[in-house]
Automatic annotation (TrEMBL):
InterPro entries: DNA-bd_dom_put_sf (IPR009061), HTH_17 (IPR041657). Keywords: DNA-binding. The keyword DNA-binding applies. It comes from Pelomonas aquatica. The keyword Thylakoid does not apply. One of its GO terms (molecular function) is DNA binding. Residues 78-97 are annotated as: Disordered. This is DNA-binding transcriptional regulator AlpA. It holds the Pfam family HTH_17. Residues 11-57 form the Helix-turn-helix domain. It comes from the Bacteria.
Length: 97
């Protein structure tokens, strides 16, 4: 059987959970809270398209992938390095050991 490129790949709930490393209860909770796209029932199984799962992953982790250190964090790191350098420099009048 050949697959048409326009035919969506369907994933059962257990397959979605395995791919996302989450339990079925967590998945159900996210669906009920509106944080995850609802599946579609066909017979006794619920399915999601692979595209829907991929789009959710991109939206969910998009901020993580776009993350850049803030200028506040960069300034804090510079201040920390300056303080470390100052602490390592011997004070005037301190007795040499």
């Amino acid at each position: 059987m050949s697959t048409n490129s326009s035919t969506p790949i369907l994933l059962k709930k257990a397959e979605v959970c395995t791919r996302l490393s989450m339990s079925e209860r967590t998945l159900e909770g996210k669906v009920n809270a509106g944080e995850f796209p609802p599946g579609r029932r066909i017979g006794k199984f619920i399915y999601w398209t692979e595209v829907a799962i991929q789009q959710w992953v991109v939206r969910y982790f998009g901020a993580q992938e776009a993350w850049m250190p803030s200028t506040v964090a960069a300034r804090s790191a510079r201040s920390h390095r300056a303080l470390s350098k100052k602490a390592a420099t011997p004070r005037k009048g301190a007795a040499a050991e």
